[in-house]
């Protein structure tokens, strides 16, 4: 299951990434395997989404969220 | 100023790096270019200790040394190249104390480059409030560098930071961090030999990003590529491994250093605000209200200072004409240079106000929310959430708006925003519309209370916005992206604006505009003045003879209008006038005669020149006279060729469309040149907008005729 499938309030633990290039960028921003992520809210039009990770709020498009595999 | 020490500020975005830079250097800073690269370079000077001066450079904020945008790539290039003029003797790494681990990732990369470094932990007061206690001494011991707790926002710890800078050793002291060698042992060794470095991390970085670096010869690039393929060097994979290793290292460094007692208190407030500000209904409603406020502020707050500036320059010109000896040089100085200067200075109030409001929105964190809300819509049209503010600002003036497009990191999104911003109807078009609408639209009411003229004006604004969005949509397919479009953005917590920063931004942006765009504007003003004041000498002689004769005849009627008749006739026979007649065949199908042609040419300097030029051509006493005078004159005007009334509905509407789409604003051309640092984009813009204007007018006139 990937991060874009969660709804606000739900959380999960990052397991891996499906896109190597994107994974570097996401990890630099603190999205590491083992971190807990929580979806905080969707933008009014459903995309992008705001997540809580590594002690701060990050927003990303659903496109990018879908490369993050969670459990 | 000669500096004893060069310091570079490096850090993540939103860490208060720029605030620290402003604190260190005050007004003692300047914006220049990094040679060969289109990134602004902010440098300033700062006193360290009693007798030393340091040159401080503020490098673009970045999350890692692997760049995601052109701006970010400068960081590694400066740090890597010891020959670079900006290469620092000392790095001050600014880190957000409330999110230490992510911020220290960049620290570990920078430290591995073996340049002396000091760690400045910013926002320590905020961390304390949130219940985060950081053992600074232990952190300093673990890392092997000086660590200073500061709060740039509240001016805390600056003295200690300066002391640390003064005491900094000139050789690196940092503890060795992650083992880099294991990531790609053979490739690193081979690269180290090739570029003669014993620093494994430097070698690794060069192997990753040498294609972006211009300090190597083509042969060296070739050899580096060969090393990469020989040793099966997979850039993304190795970057991933490096990042994981660094975080693991940071885990051990930070263990026992941070004690968190009041977990996540900082988010409660921000979350509550976000519930309203990014709400499905309220979010958009509040955004719309804020936009209305911004738009209104740019229009109404600037009205008074703009009037003063206009009046001031008019008085200066009058005074000059009174007291300076008459002659060509005086005319050039007053009507060319001073008029050009006036045309620049007049924009300052709008620029200052727009940037004050933008910097407040950014400082408070609201801008990130706007981007968040609007991204979906804007993306459809090839723009990004961050394009919203420049587009709205263009309703007042495209010049500051194009400058504000710099907030857009993605190159393609930014170029498209810059390219379409001038289509949005700006305040300079307003006098043109007002005059033309009063000429061609009857002063009637629709449904008994809506003025038809006001409705037309609103229609013109609508047309401009629709055009901008459509052109953006087309450009989305035409412009090739240099980088993959993605959107990963830190959402900062809400904060109070820093008023010093706001003031500094206003000052800095106005200054940049005056000095950068100003040069071009003055030059074009002078050229236009010369072309409007001179013509072939035989023609001018004939005019002078004709009017001398009239003067001698003492015909009182003719004499009362003598001066303005003479200047009208001179304008017609000047080079601008001749040019107007030359282009007439081209603009004839749009319903314009050569007199309008003259106005089109003089309008290239600035659209609002239209009214003044029409006044001169049609011999209205002075441009300052009531608009009704000009209107009546124009109403009676007949086509120079057919003798029929000139301003029919078709001609007037076609002319309005022309002004809506044409790039008649040299300030915009100049600022686009400055912002894109090439003539390519302003030229493309000039051509496409002129073509759009021409064909829109052509179609409108031919249909309505």
TrEMBL record, chain A:
Instruction: Note whether Repeat occurs among the keywords.
Output: no
Molecular function as annotated in GO: transition metal ion binding
Which ranges form a coiled coil?
Answer: none
Under the heading InterPro entries, the entry gives: Fe-transptr_FeoA-like (IPR007167), FeoA (IPR052713), FeoA_core_dom (IPR038157), Transcriptional_repressor_C (IPR008988)
Q: Keywords assigned by UniProt?
A: Iron
**Name of the protein:** Iron transporter
Entry keyword annotation includes Ubl conjugation: no
Q: Which Pfam families match?
A: FeoA (PF04023)
Question: Per its UniProt record, what SMART domains does this chain match?
Answer: FeoA
Domain Ferrous iron transporter FeoA-like per the UniProt entry, residue ranges: 1-71
């Amino acid at each position: 299951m990937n991060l874009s499938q969660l709804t606000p309030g739900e959380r999960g633990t990052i397991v891996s990434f499906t896109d190597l290039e994107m994974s570097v960028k996401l990890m630099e921003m603190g999205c590491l395997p083992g971190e807990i992520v929580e979806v905080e809210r969707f933008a009014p039009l459903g995309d992008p989404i705001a997540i809580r990770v590594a002690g701060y709020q990050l927003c990303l498009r659903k496109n990018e969220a879908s490369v993050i595999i969670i459990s | 100023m000669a500096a004893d020490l060069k310091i570079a500020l490096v850090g993540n975005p939103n860490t208060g790096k720029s605030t620290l830079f402003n604190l260190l250097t005050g007004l003692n800073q300047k914006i220049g270019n990094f040679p060969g690269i289109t990134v602004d370079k902010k440098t300033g000077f700062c006193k360290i200790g009693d007798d030393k001066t340091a040159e401080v450079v503020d490098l673009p904020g970045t999350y890692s040394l692997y760049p995601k945008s052109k701006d970010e790539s400068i960081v590694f290039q400066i740090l890597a190249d010891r020959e670079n003029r900006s290469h620092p003797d000392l790095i001050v790494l600014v880190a957000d104390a409330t999110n230490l681990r992510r911020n220290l990732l960049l620290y570990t990369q920078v430290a591995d480059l073996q340049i002396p470094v000091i760690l400045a932990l910013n926002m320590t007061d905020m961390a304390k409030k949130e219940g985060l206690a950081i053992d600074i001494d232990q952190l300093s011991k673990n890392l092997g560098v000086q660590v200073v707790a500061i709060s740039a926002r509240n001016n805390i710890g600056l003295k200690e930071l300066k002391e640390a800078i003064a005491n900094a050793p000139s050789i690196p002291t940092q503890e060795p961090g992650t083992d880099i060698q294991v990531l790609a042992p053979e490739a690193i060794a081979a690269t180290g030999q090739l570029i003669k470095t014993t620093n494994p991390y430097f070698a690794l970085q060069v192997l990753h990003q040498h294609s972006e670096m211009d300090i190597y010869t083509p042969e060296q690039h070739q050899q580096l590529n060969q090393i990469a393929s020989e040793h099966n060097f997979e850039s993304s994979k190795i970057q991933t491994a490096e990042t994981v290793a660094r975080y693991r290292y940071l885990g051990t460094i930070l263990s026992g250093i941070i004690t968190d007692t009041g977990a996540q208190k900082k988010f409660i407030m921000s979350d509550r605000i976000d519930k309203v500000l990014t709400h499905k209904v309220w979010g958009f409603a509040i955004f719309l209200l804020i936009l209305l406020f911004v738009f209104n502020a740019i229009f109404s707050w600037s009205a008074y200072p703009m009037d003063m500036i206009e009046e001031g320059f008019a008085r200066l010109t009058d005074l000059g004409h009174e007291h300076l000896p008459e002659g060509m040089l005086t005319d050039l100085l007053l009507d060319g240079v001073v008029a050009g200067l006036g045309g620049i200075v007049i924009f300052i109030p709008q620029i200052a106000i727009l940037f004050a409001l933008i910097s407040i929105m950014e400082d408070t964190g609201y801008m990130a929310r706007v981007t968040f809300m609007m991204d979906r819509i804007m993306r459809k049209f090839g723009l990004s959430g961050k394009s919203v503010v420049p587009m709205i600002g263009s309703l007042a003036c495209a010049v500051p708006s194009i400058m504000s497009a710099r907030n857009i990191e993605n190159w393609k999104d930014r170029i498209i925003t810059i390219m379409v911003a001038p289509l949005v109807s700006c305040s300079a078009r307003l006098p043109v519309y007002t005059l033309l609408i009063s000429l061609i639209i009857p002063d009637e009411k629709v449904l008994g209370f809506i003025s038809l003229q006001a409705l037309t004006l609103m229609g013109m604004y609508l047309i401009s916005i629709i055009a901008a969005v459509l052109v953006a949509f087309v450009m989305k397919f035409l412009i090739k992206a240099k980088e993959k479009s993605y959107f990963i953005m830190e959402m900062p917590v809400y904060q109070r604006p820093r008023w010093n920063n706001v003031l500094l931004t206003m000052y800095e942006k106005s200054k940049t505009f005056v000095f950068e765009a100003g040069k071009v504007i003055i030059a074009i003003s002078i050229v236009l003045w010369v072309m409007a004041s001179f013509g072939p000498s035989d023609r001018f002689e004939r005019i002078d003879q004709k009017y001398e004769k009239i003067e001698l005849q003492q015909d009182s009627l003719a004499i009362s209008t003598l001066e303005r008749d003479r200047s009208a006739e001179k304008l017609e026979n000047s080079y601008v006038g001749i040019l107007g007649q030359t282009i007439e065949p081209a603009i004839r199908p749009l319903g314009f005669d050569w007199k309008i042609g003259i106005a089109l040419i003089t309008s290239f300097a600035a659209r609002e020149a239209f009214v003044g030029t029409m006044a001169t051509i049609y011999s209205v006493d002075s441009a300052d006279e009531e608009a009704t005078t000009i209107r009546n004159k124009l109403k009676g005007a007949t086509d120079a060729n057919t003798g029929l009334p000139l301003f029919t509905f078709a001609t007037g509407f076609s002319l309005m469309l022309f002004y809506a789409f044409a790039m008649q604003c040299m300030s915009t051309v100049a600022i686009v040149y400055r912002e894109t640092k090439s003539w390519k984009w302003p030229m493309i813009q000039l051509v496409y907008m002129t073509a759009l204007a021409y064909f829109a007018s052509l179609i409108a006139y031919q249909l309505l005729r």
